[in-house]
Amino acid sequence: MSPGPRKVAVVGVALSDCGRVDTATPYALHAQAARRALADSGLDKEVVDGLASAGLGTLAPLEVGEYLGLRPTWVDSTGIGGSTWEVMAAHAADAIAAGHANAVLLVYGSTARADLKAGRRRANLSFGTRGPAQFEMPYGHTLVAKYAMAARRHMHQYGTTLEQFADVAVQTRANAAHNPQAMYRDPITVDDVLGGPLIADPFTKLHCCIRSDGGCAVLLAAQEYVADTAKPPVWVLGAGTAVSHTTMSEWADFTVSPAAVSGRRAFERAGVTPQDIEVAELYDAFTYMTLVTLEDLGFCAKGEGGAFMEGGRLLIGGELPVNTDGGGLSACHPGMRGLFLLVEAVRQLRGEVEAGRQVRKDGGRLPRLAVASGTGGWFCSSGTVVLGRD
């Protein structure tokens, strides 16, 4: 009789230098984050037999692995945008549970901001004009325009207001004020958001994520390694993945993201409900993403996201703290931000962030359950991971 699946824990997390990083390469940020995550775990580099990487090089895991001096026997190079990292975490947890790997490193680094400033890339991100995209590109349908169109549909269908979208940015910035590493910490108002330059109707500048440099890393390991780690484990309790569409004409409902599927599966596998969650880290390239993901994960009913998060509910001291580091709207957004969600969720559960940023629940205790939910493309894909501490 074969033994049951092994439990899987996050045993190390770290950020590289983030924000404005003009003198490092993306490879250097990968290495910096990886070294810091290993140091955070207290484990030796030799235990790492799995590597997950995307977004850098022609053969991402091979080039990054070589740069880091790793020779993994399990790799993942899934590339589905911002949700990549939650999906990779799900793959890694399954592999470790099944005994196909013992310790898997997820690592990311990008100099998107520095490259733009130096003229090494353009501001617009092109996904090409081949395949299904050829039917949309002639009409100038940019990534931000796709999110904006979906937001307009939510407003039309459910009466969601621009002020409610703007309040997402306001509350996220208030959370960023407690994070010394956040790029933007000065408070903003709903009027500030509404009065900014228009990017894609209805989004003004502050409805959109910032552009930064930075990287991070997460190390997952089997339960037998936990006794040798430097920090208390944060367990992977359940995960779910889902994809939706690539062309807008194939998106059945602009007001529903694939998080409606990935979230349900993650919560079911973890044996918890959305109401049990005490910290939520959600992908927020645009304000609409936060609102609709809250609905799709089941924190409120469809169409009620605007009303749900009013009154400061998303603040660090609110009923459901969301994006406690300031999110992609204020803290950092170097590209595929999903891995940063996992780092912040783990740090919150461990209780190791700054005092003003640390979520405290009844009686001042640390939170026990967190969810990280990443989104890729223009709501094309989703990965949701439920984390918990002992």
- Strand tally is 11
Distance between the termini: 29 Å
Major beta sheet, strand line-up: 3-2-4-7-1-8-11-10-9
What are the segments in which pLDDT stays under 50 over at least 5 consecutive residues?
Answer: none
Radius of gyration: 20 Å
Q: H/E series, N to C? A: EHEHEHEHHHHEEEEHEHHHHEE
Helix content: 25-40%
Secondary-structure-based class equals alpha/beta
Query: How many helical stretches?
Result: 12
Give a short account of the largest sheet.
9 strands, mixed
Explain this structure.
By secondary structure, the protein is of the alpha/beta class. It contains 12 helices and 11 strands. Strands 3-2-4-7-1-8-11-10-9 form a 9-stranded mixed sheet, sandwiched between helices. It has a two-stranded antiparallel sheet with strand order 5-6. Helix 6 crosses helix 9. It is globular and about 55 Å long. The two termini are 29 Å apart. The relative contact order is 0.19. The model has no long low-confidence stretch (mean pLDDT 95).
Concise description?
With 390 residues, the chain is of the alpha/beta class.
List its traits.
390 residues, nine-stranded mixed sheet, two-stranded antiparallel sheet, 17% strand
Secondary structure elements and their pairing?
Layout: E1 8-15, H1 26-41, E2 50-52, H2 60-68, E3 74-76, H3 84-98, E4 103-110, H4 112-117, H5 143-158, H6 162-176, H7 190-194, E5 198-200, E6 203-204, E7 214-222, E8 234-243, H8 259-270, E9 279-282, H9 287-296, H10 305-308, H11 327-331, H12 338-350, E10 369-376, E11 381-389
Parallel strand pairs: 2-3, 2-4, 9-10
Antiparallel strand pairs: 1-7, 1-8, 4-7, 5-6, 8-11, 10-11
